[in-house]
Amino acid sequence: MLRPKSNSMRMVLCLDGIWTLKVNNEERPIAVPGSWNEQYQDLCYEEGPLVYSTDFFVPEKFVDKHIRLYFGAVNTDCVIFINGEKVKENHIGYLPFEVDITGKVRKGKNELKVVVENHLKMGGFPSKIPEEGTHTVGFLGSFPAANFDFFPYGGIIRPVMMEFTEHSRIVDVWVDTSESNMEEKLGKVKVKVMVSEEAMGEEMKITFGGIEKKVKLINTHLEEEFTLRDVKFWSPKVPHLYPLKLEIMEKDEYELEIGIRVISWDEKRLYLNGKPIFLKGFGKHEEFPVLGQGTFYPLMVKDFNLLKWINANSFRTSHYPYSEEWLDLADRLGVLVIDEAPHVGITRHHYNTKTQNLAVENLKRIIDRDKNHPSVIMWSVANEPESNYPEADKFFKMLYKTAKNLDRTRPVVMVSMMDTPDERTRDVALRHFDIICVNRYYGWYVHQGRIEEGLKALEKDLDELYKRHKKPIFITEFGADAIAGFHYDPPQMFSEEYQAELIKKTVELLMRKDYIIGAHPWAFADFKTPQNVRRPILNHKGVFTRDRQPKLSAHVLRKLWSNS
Ligand code: GCU
Question: Nearest C-alpha to atom 10 of ligand 1 is from which residue?
Answer without folding.
Answer: 149
